[in-house]
Write a structure and sequence with these properties.
- Helices cover about 35% and strands about 20% of the residues.
- The mean pLDDT is about 90.
- It is built from ten helices and 14 strands.
- It is α/β, with parallel strands linked by helices.
């Protein structure tokens, strides 16, 4: 730790990930939550490994194996470390462990997600509670850290006002995931979901606001677009600025496929009614089952039953802020 640091200066926070939005936003969301609590400068670093070494076990990777295009996340000789290092994802693990063992002046190292490594190798692990991780330096939260805040979604809604303001209520945000290790979205299931959404909207009027994932299979995407583009609303075509935050802010209801812990937690953070859309399971999925049940038990979401009945709002989920408060508490104790 750097005991000579000026305590009045902004914290220097380094965010480390492979740069994929769903991964990076976990570390960045936590860093931004820290910044809301205490002045901080955030540096985003994207890292990767040469293809020959990418699949190697994390414990065997060395800094020289990094992709030359990766950001220089480790300081050069004499350069200072950041105060806090927040990393997410498998690609970051070898560098996080190196940061922990760097000696005097090293950063306080935080890893989000289950690192699948000894948790005591890090100063703090912020893990989804459905991962079932425990330990003295583990903070469990419902879902994953994210960047959704009331201010950010209000700003996004204002930025897209020309497209959103004319849409009739109730406005239904539809967040579609896709194929993963645990779930799939085959064409027949995509058609069933699209028809169910269209029928439910026809019963109440209103409009849809649809985003699809890079993981959405092309056949499923084509079907969903074909069947939902005829409804009042906006099916984003992937061109231009992403209206995802704006859709969350403008929605009266949010439909989200159950394959993404990130999207479920983000939707639950808005306070809007959240409806979970079923996917096709590719294998047993106890972690997703636990997350789904936790959201339902706490009244933050419910299975989509083909209607928009039920409570008009819920208490927004604020787990990222809670994790940031705990991070700073532990960081202060570590520096003392």
């Amino acid at each position: 730790m750097d005991l000579t640091r000026d305590s009045a200066s902004p914290l220097r926070v380094r965010v480390v990930s492979d740069g994929r939005a769903g991964i990076q936003n976990q570390a960045l969301g936590l860093a931004e939550a820290v910044q809301r609590l205490r002045p901080a400068d955030i540096e985003i670093c994207r890292i990767g490994w040469r293809s020959a070494f990418d699949k190697w076990p994390s414990a065997l990777k060395q800094p020289w194996m990094r992709d030359p295009a990766a950001d220089p996340v480790l300081p050069s000789d004499g350069a200072p470390w950041p105060d806090i290092w927040i990393a997410t994802g498998r690609a970051s693990l070898p560098l996080s462990v190196r940061a922990v063992s760097a000696g005097p002046g090293r950063p306080f190292v935080v890893q989000t997600q289950d690192p699948r490594w000894r948790t005591d190798r890090f100063d703090l692990v912020v893990a989804p509670e459905h991962d079932g991780l425990s330990g003295p330096n583990v903070v469990s939260i419902l879902g994953s850290p994210h960047r959704i805040t009331p201010a950010r979604i209000a700003e996004a809604v204002a930025a897209f006002a020309d497209r959103l303001d004319p849409l009739p209520h109730p406005r239904v945000a539809v967040l579609i995931g896709g194929r993963s290790a645990s779930h799939d979205l085959p064409p027949d299931h995509a058609a069933q979901l699209a028809d169910q959404i269209a029928e439910a909207l026809a019963a109440v009027g209103g409009s849809v606001m649809v985003t699809l994932s890079r993981r959405t299979p092309p056949e499923a995407e084509a079907i969903i677009r074909q069947r939902l583009e005829t409804l009042p609303g906006w099916v984003w075509d992937g061109q231009g600025d992403n209206p995802y935050f704006a859709f969350l802010g403008a929605a009266d209801h949010v439909l989200v496929t159950e394959d993404s812990a990130n999207m479920a937690a983000e939707a639950a953070s808005t306070g809007r009614p959240v409806h979970l859309l079923p996917m096709v399971a590719r294998k047993p999925q106890p972690k997703f089952d636990r997350l789904r049940q936790s959201l339902i038990t706490r009244g933050l979401a419910r299975p989509f039953d083909g209607t928009f009945d039920g409570p008009a709002a819920t208490t927004p989920l604020a787990e990222t802020d809670r994790a940031a408060r705990e991070l700073l508490r532990r960081y202060d104790a570590w520096r003392a």
